[in-house]
Amino acid sequence: MPAPHLELLTLRDLLRWSISRFHAADLVFGHGSDNAWDEAAYLLLHSLHLPPDTLDPFLDARLLENERQRCIDLIRQRIETRKPAAYLTGEAWLQGARFLVDERVIVPRSPISELLAEGLSPWIDDPDQIGQVLDLCTGSGCLAILAAHAFSQAAVDAVDVSGDALAVAESNITLHGLQDRVRALRSDLLSQVPPERRYELIICNPPYVNEQSMQALPSEYRHEPRLALAGGDDGMDLVRRILADAPGLMAPEGLLVLEIGHEKAHFEAAFPELEPVWLDTAATTDQILLLRRAQLVS
Question: Is there a single domain that holds both residue 152 and residue 255?
């Protein structure tokens, strides 16, 4: 990439230049931002040690040479490596909360986070009555931590098969000061979860990408752990195990909230007898489902 011209003096100049470079490089977004503007703004503000949600007051500020160079280096790194921005900065933001991330975990972005911010209303009447929550396939621990904030009386188990992922989750649990309420547990799905647990709520963003889609993933997504994405031929390999084993660990009125991305057709083909409630968010439709324990038992 040719060296930027000396005319790039202000943050506004650098933002425009970055967006142009991102479009020219045909980058793919989807790890916290879905467009070049937001991603460029985030990376530039991070480079300048400015709040990630405060752009306008600084747009016309002139940059020192070393500041400009830091910005340019990070923008170039995003283009040349095709790594998601979160891996370059070591952090991701979800529902206004900061999480530490690296390539041991997928980048936090689950729309389940939006449902947790609403306390899963109206499906949960009283958040204070939730005593035990399981975040299955926890990865960075972001949903477990958001669940602990949403349900202030709950003990939350953050479960993953990957020891590397759990190390990241534990760092985030400590970052948020929740060591007394959120516990990281290593388990191959539910097989090593203590059998006496009776969860009122299980949330899960499992690996669900079908094999054909895995083969077509853009470069940005190939930096994420395959273990956290691949769901087998139809994307339902792990979902089958989850739905079979979950009832034994759920309270009588327990709920399961499961993210399956764009795999609704595969889910319905695999489980034609189930009639879940589909939970829409501001950005998604037919990607998150809710099932009651009674449905899974029957």
Answer: yes
- ω before 206 within 30° of 0 (cis)? no
Q: What local confidence, expressed as pLDDT, does residue 217 receive?
A: 96
pLDDT digits (tens, 9 = 90+) for 11-30: 999 999 999 999 999 999 99
Confidence of residue 265 (pLDDT cuts 50, 70, 90): very high
* One domain for residues 211 and 182: yes
Q: CA 173 to CA 182: how far, in whole Å?
A: 7
For residue 7, the model assigns a pLDDT of 80
What is the chain written as a DSSP string?
-PPPPTT--BHHHHHHHHHHHHHHHT----SS-SSHHHHHHHHHHHHTT--TT--GGGTTPBPPHHHHHHHHHHHHHHHHH---HHHHHTEEEETTEEEE--TTSPPS--THHHHHHTTTTTT-S-GGG--EEEEES-TTSHHHHHHHHHSTT-EEEEEES-HHHHHHHHHHHHHTT-TTTEEEEE-STTTTS-TT--EEEEEE----B-HHHHHT--HHHHTS-GGGTB--TTS-HHHHHHHHHGGGGEEEEEEEEEE-TT-HHHHHHH-TT--PEE---SS-SSSEEEEEHHHHH-
Q: Are residues 253 and 124 in the same domain?
A: yes
Q: Tens of pLDDT along 109-162?
A: 999 999 999 999 999 999 999 999 999 999 999 999 999 999 999 999 999 999
Other Cβ atoms less than 10 A from the Cβ of 53: the count is: 10
Pair 200, 112 in one domain: yes
The residue out of 52, 82, 112 marking a domain boundary is: 82
Domain count along the chain: 2
